[in-house]
Design a protein that fits this description.
The chain has 119 residues and is an alpha+beta fold. It has 2 helices and 7 strands; from the N terminus they run ββββαβαββ. The chain starts with a strand and ends with a strand.
Length: 119
């Protein structure tokens, strides 16, 4: 079985794309992305222009621990590369930063919380 992501524009916030994550035909999580400037984050100082910022991702608790998160990251990076983006950027919680690094993400700058991955 593989992960599928159904993307759509967030109606209340058109700068954001929401993705519902499916596995075995069931909705197992969701994510939110944007390639727009987020003034509250001041990301233009650090992001290449061909970047997408992953603002939120969640695999629902009863589906965790089965590799769905890793499959989702693989599917997401493939989809974004096909759309012409070169980088995926995120700001992980401290307790999961190591997991993101195991998925190929690295700090944007020394002592920076933001991680990025070349697609």
């Amino acid at each position: 079985m593989e992960v599928r992501i159904k993307y759509g524009i967030e109606p209340d916030h058109p700068a954001y794309t929401k993705g519902v994550i499916f596995y075995d035909g069931k909705a197992v999580g969701y994510l939110i992305l944007t390639d727009k400037e987020l003034p509250e984050r001041n990301l233009s100082r650090i992001l290449p222009s061909d970047s997408v910022y992953l603002t939120y991702i969640e695999i629902f608790p009863n589906f965790r621990g089965n590799g769905i998160g890793a499959q989702t990251v693989g599917k997401l990076t493939k989809d974004l590369k096909q759309k012409g983006y070169d980088y995926l950027v995120l700001e992980p919680r401290a307790e999961v930063a190591g997991w993101w690094e195991s998925m190929g993400f690295f700090p944007i700058a020394k002592d920076d919380w933001f991680l990025m991955k070349r697609l």
